[in-house]
Amino acid sequence: MKFFVDTADVAAIAELNDLGMVDGVTTNPSIIAKSGRDILEVTKEICDLVDGPVSAEVVSLDADGMIAEGRKLAKIADNITVKVPLTWDGLKACKVLSSEGTMVNVTLCFSANQALLAAKAGATFISPFIGRLDDINLDGLELIEDIRTIYDNYGFETQILAASIRNANHMSECAKIGADVCTAPPNVIKAMANHVLTDNGLAAFMKDIEKANIKIV
Fold this sequence. Notes:
Helices cover 52% and strands 17% of the residues. The chain is an alpha/beta fold. The protein has a single domain (2-212), classed as Aldolase class I (TIM Barrel, Alpha-Beta Barrel), CATH 3.20.20.70. Helix 6 (112-120) runs parallel beside helix 8. It is globular.
C-alpha cells in the first residue's frame, strides 16, 4: 500500500520522505492556507521534493472553471494530480482532464455509486473519506471494501485512495482490505510505530543493560 502524506508542511514531508515513507502528497486550499503561503508556491516546492503524485485542488464549482484551474495546476510539475470534487461538474472536469493526460483525484467520495462514476470518468484516484463517515455512525472501512469489490469485478484501474484517516488502526485496516493508497497526516503515520509492549520491552532492556553496565564503544 502506498503512503501519501496529507499536509502542506514541507519540513514534515521531508522528514518522512527521507525514511522512504512518502509515495505522494495530498493537499487542499484549506491545508495550504494554514501555512500562510502562496498556494502555487507551496505546491511547486512539494512537487520538487517528492517523486510521487501531489494532489492540488481546484476551487471552482463549475466544470469549465475546474478545467481551467486544473490545466493551470498541471503546469506546475509533471507529478501534479488535479483534485476535483465528486459532483456532476467534477466528473465532467475529470473526464476532460484525464483525457488530456492529467492525473485526477476525485475527492469527497461517500458512496460506492460515486466511486463507480469516478472510475467511468477516468479518475486516476478516488478518495473515499473514512473518518467523516465514521463521524455520522456509518462504517467508512465498509465503503473501502465495497469499492474494492466493484473495481476488481470490472478491472477498473482507478486507485482507491483512502482519505480522512484518523488513526493508525485505519491504516492497517485499509491495507488488509486492499486500498491502493492511504493518505494521512504525519502524526498518524508516525503513530504506526507505537506499541505499549515495544515501550515496555525497551524499558526492561535498558534496566538490564544498566545493571550489567554494558557499553558498546
